Batch of 4 targets.
Target 1
Amino acid sequence: MLPSDPNPAETPVTPTFKLALPALALAALITPAQAQQAPLKVGLMLPATGTYTALGDAIEKGFKLYVQEHGGKLGGRDIQYFKVDDESEPSKATDNVNKLIKRDQVDVLVGTVHSGVALAMARAAKESNTLLIVPNAGADAITGAQCAANIFRTSFTNWQPGYAAGVVASGKGYKRAMTITWNYAAGIETVKGFTEGFEKGGGKVVKDLSLPFPNVEFQALLTEIAAQKPDVVFAFFAGGAASKFLKDYDAAGLKKSVPLVASGFLTDGTLEAAGASGQGVLSTLHYADNLDTPRNNAFRKSYALTYKSNADVYAVQGYDAAQLLAAGLTAVKGDFKQRDAMVAAMRKVRIDSPRGAFTLSPQHNPVQDIFLREAKGDNNEMRGVAVKALADPGRGCRM
Ligand code: PHB
């Protein structure tokens, strides 16, 4: 079986008014450009196996929800999906993305979760000038040194939630911090952001601990934290591994003795599995489940009705990736060949996101509020705005 899934069943091509109009009248309504418009080919490259599986699933559901809410179309174009499971495996990333670019000849790439995989996607997208929308991976370089006119992101940079957590932790008066994460771009850059925010506020990171992705043998590192007794621990893990970390932190007795301030991914989509061990954990992220706005409430209701599960930050980011593509396509009436005009519209966009409205930085990354949240039941509840309208510095970007 091919790994791609064109899924034409989800892309009705018959305009609903066709039956009501005689053929001649219809011909007068459709411009030649529209008549030629085949479905827009969207290549979804996301993890469908491994510790990030649930994250990829929520992104895809979020993206498809927005398309479904708009009659299966974006900017008047039917959408045809092609899919590749990237397994969160950087060594396979170039081959995988080329299945979508070269074999399936997609118009737009949407992906992925893992920073290392996304960096390879961004390289391939830049070389082939394929439009890329990143709905999660935070690798700073994607909207920094590796930025490009055809690359956009609807999620965050790793620096953003990390920096905000540092501001929160120093604001609480903590002086000595330890950090713990996976030793790859997302972990390293998130910790760097935390350190910047924390030390700017007068704190000191006394030790960084890490293990290779996607390992979950936390025990030796937790023993070291218990021995050093810092004022606070900052952690970045995500997906299935994050629930295990929360449980192990609790089982080691640390939940009672050393407060955690985390990147919000530690507690997003992981609280049910973490049970009591996740409760009360403070974290920073650009989304909180209980944002009581008409936009967020409508989105969560629509998602829950469609998928019989609750939306999380990943679903929001996927939904907003579809919104961004829709904004570009609408500006050119679905004529994807007008790429410059489309990109110009995407750069100026104001996305009405469930997280709150956001714009894009000149490097194409969201400028957004980062919330302080507390884990309560299965939700991450808003406790305040940690940093308002935070823009990544976009270091090294020349566009
Ligand atoms: C990343 O690799 O950039 C990454 C992965 C999972 C997250 C957040 C960031 O939840």
Target 2
Amino acid sequence: MLVTGGAGFIGSVTTLALLEAGHDVIVADDLSNSSKHAIDRVESLARESGAAGDLEFHELDARDDAALHDLFASGHITSVIHFAGLKAVGESVDKPLDYYRVNLGSTVSLVTAMRDHGVRDLVFSSSATVYGPEAQSPLREDAALSTSSPYGRTKLFIEQMLRDVAAAEPGWNIALLRYFNPIGAHPSGLIGEDPRGIPNNLMPYIMQVAVGRRDELVVFGDDYDTADGTCVRDYIHVLDLADGHVAALHAIDRFHGCQAVNLGTGTGHSVLEVLAAATAAVGKPLPFRLGARRPGDIAVTVADPSRAAALLGWSATRTLNDMCTDAWRWQSTNPFGYGD
Ligand code: UFG
């Protein structure tokens, strides 16, 4: 099978899970926001665990039609997981054309190559960002869709595009996996999240405070309508998310067209709860202050995960403490990530 973006945070952990489940995996990644070290570590972890699948890596941009054609022409690809893409909400507001070019362009090229080579099984990385602010948590897949950033719009447009593709021709099985807030790291401490520049997301920011790379966490708003006033999100361990992809792939024959599935736990945690759990995992106080709201944030985003349980036979099992312990193992042993 083909995994685009397989050197990234979620892609690398999922690639390892696929190898362990016995799949041969071809990773295509242009390394623009990821590290080849992640692939090397996946390879050695797979070897150590006696994984049955083989790993092959190609440094390529998923918009490169000729390179994609050559990959598919090898005849070994029967299904695809498409992770590759740009993913920073704030950056997408400043550079919308980059987001449309990369996220939409790569998907058009990839799906065209799939069609040309008779490959019809696709798992796509979507996001809970497609649920608009008016949708009520717990969010079901049939909630109203709308989104406020160019990044979110690329996910929404791609979802629509894939529905159109599936409607135009029979035979497609497409899973739109809507991720909630993936955090944590592989429990080995060898593969994890390595954002370039200042982290946008809560957990990598907290972890960089914990290793002394940042002075303090700023909590973005404590006057929301929640129990402690800070925003509530559905944090999911990246290992659970990876297992969700393996489950989606194994259930893909049941998709018959294009369907959306939430990957979340169904349980929400506030920013202060995450900070408290991270502080316990790290074992020392983590400096923070309460600051202003971040524009665009909504008070509560939590999944209704029942469709994933019914359709994929999958549900998340790991706790917030597991997420923080694993994130800290990764960050404390790799304070500067992969170091490239
Ligand atoms: N937060 C802080 N301080 C920080 C960073 C974040 O208080 O330094 C807070 C945010 O305000 C929010 C919570 O921590 O309340 C989580 O923020 P993240 O940026 O980690 O996650 P979001 O829920 O905002 O974003 C995630 C994904 C996006 C996706 C979005 C909407 O990272 O890709 O959900 O579904 F678009």
Target 3
Amino acid sequence: MGGNIMKARIVIDKNKTVSRIDDRLYGSFIEHLGRAVYGGIYEPSHETADDMGFRGDVMEMIKELNVPIIRYPGGNFVSGYNWEDGTGDKSKRPKKMELAWQSVETNEVGIDEFQEWAKRAHSDVMMAVNLGTRGADEARNLVEYCNCETDTYYAGMRRRNGFEKPFGIKTWCLGNEMDGDWQICHKTAYEYGRIACETAKLMKWTDPSIELVACGSAHINMPTFGEWERTVLRECYEHVDYISLHNYYGNPNNDTAAYLASAVDMDSFIKQVAAICDEVKAEKNSDKTVNLSFDEWNIWFHSNEQDKQIEKWQVAPPLLEDIYNLEDAVVLGDLLITLINNSDRVKIACLAQLVNVIAPIMTETGGRIWAQTIFYPFMHTSQRGRGTALEVSCGCGTYSAGGKKDIPFINTAAVISEDGGELTVFAVNRSLDESCTLDLSLSGYEGFNPVLHTAMEGDDLKAVNTADDPKKVVPAEKDISDGIILSPHSWNMIVFQKTAE
Ligand code: AHR
């Protein structure tokens, strides 16, 4: 693979840190959409189903990803959702027309079941409230239902439904993508800013320990991007803790050189939103910093055409079932590197989504399960990317693609583990034809040597995993005896441990 070899000079200094990484950077997302819930996490007739109907094979694979928090129940779905429909006696729950995805929602799974599923998956819930068809009243009632021990109606309703102890949900989203005209009851920035402010007040009065995320833009190319964040934050700055970012990347024109630079766009998006937060902070002369929740990010484009053929008003139609290839895995690993390098401001991030719907995990309803290519960079980064992010200075060549100049061939992040015993470097080589030797200088990490180099690489950028061939694209261990070499278009993880004094 790749005849030519370039060199990148990487300097890491123990004293130059970005931030302690919030574990929630490795969050994910389950929406009532397609086969994410029904046929995904929940399928009572599946041979691996547990006592509550949750698929055991899905649960086991999610545990491998070590996902600390999962956003729920949407997404666009939440803007038309009545949370009460998914509580209490299952036989009395209403079947509804779900307008966001034009499907039928049976409400067989709701907050009662999902919070129990999340516990079993060793994850917390990040709950979104409906600020489309509903508002502050239903939102504060939901906080009471989930979190309060009071002798009052909604806390009592939870107890009557069989849950004595509160669910203890700490992170909440104030609606979803309210800037998009596709959203059920879309709002202007000012309308949303006011509702977010008043809803936030009521929710925090109900449970002062919760943290709140206001909606930012649905993506960086929204016509209102920037002005939306500014206007919303001017209305609700003192009442919220985070503002959201959403963005999906893709390669619809098969321009791989440009696609491999997707993380450059993510980095710029993050920096622009952080700057707007600080601009409003300065305007308000506030002591408080609003941080970022990148609570929808992934690659989404493969399924766009097939989704146009899907019949409306079905239960759990196969929507957004992107099948990911090797180049998607490299891009996804690069996006994770970018989140780590911005972990001083991005405290929460949710890979959207987790099962079947633009997801690392795919299932057959009633059948098999397999990991998509993107599963692996997410799993390795989630497992080893905990601790403190270090600044990385990377000297390497650059290229131009897709109208962008000065795209570095190499992108890296470094994380020192909590106990200081393991330093992990994540790296992508964006070059389509050149390998790259890493020349590393680790100041303050004397005696640390590479003990493991795992990579996702290969000649066929379009190779995918399927139910019949589930291990076609998987990470492989590399020989490190001749140094660290990054193959063309590859994602890499290099682990250093102290092996000498
Ligand atoms: O994740 C799929 C959809 O993408 C979500 O419902 C929505 O918030 C976004 O547009």
Target 4
Amino acid sequence: MLHIGCHLSPSSGLLKMAETAFSLAADTFQFFSRNPRGSKAKPLDEADAAAMRDYLSQNAFAPVLVHAPYTLNPCAENPSVAEFAELVMRDDLLRCTAMRAPYYNFHPGSHVGQGIDVGVDKTAALLNRILDASTDTTVLIETMSGQGSEIGGTFEQVKAIIDGVERNDRVGVCLDTCHVFAAGYDIVNDLDGALTAFDRVIGLDRLRFIHLNDSKFECGQHKDRHAAIGDGFIGIEGVRRIVNHPALRDLPFCLETPHEKLEEYADEIRFVRGLCE
Ligand code: FE
Ligand code: FE
Ligand code: ZN
């Protein structure tokens, strides 16, 4: 059975969020570690975290994903911006460990004129400083669209970050279908080719999670604009091939599609499940 869910808010508590996911017929989901703009996090409610964990295992959920604030820039030139990213990610990793969250996903950042190599080195160096023996959460690098000066827009850049991390047994990859398509990997006409490239460059064993989004822009436009499933250039047939691909179909999938209401996610989850062969 396909493991699929959507992005949810923990604002009413972690257990409540898991119950909401269940009510949508999801068996995985993603949530922000704190306010997505990166401000202070509420202290972790350990009892609530334990209750969520029990609920997830009793209901046979696939692994869930904690997402870092998307405004962080781990490779920023400005030291206070880079330090802020480090502070938040270090604290998030502690919280993920306390929650026993399996995965912590982040965007590797934008080099803003420093050059890709500097960006890659800085992001890897940050991971080296925060990944220590005290965490058993695996950090996932999200594949990016290469919009602006974003790093992580090619599999080679993602691999270079991984190679720069000493404890990279704790590092995996989250593949965002909108982002890789925007970055120029034609997962509609040559999904096999893109996954073969992923395997050759990074290794499919690093791939732990899929962000399942359609794309408002065509392949290679470097525009990170998510569309609802079937509403973009990846299309229903493209999504059908993605969720049925032998290299992907057993991974957890999370929708980050633009919808207002939870019922719309329930519908989309049901729709994507219906595409599975
Ligand atoms: Fe993301
Ligand atoms: Fe994403
Ligand atoms: Zn995106």
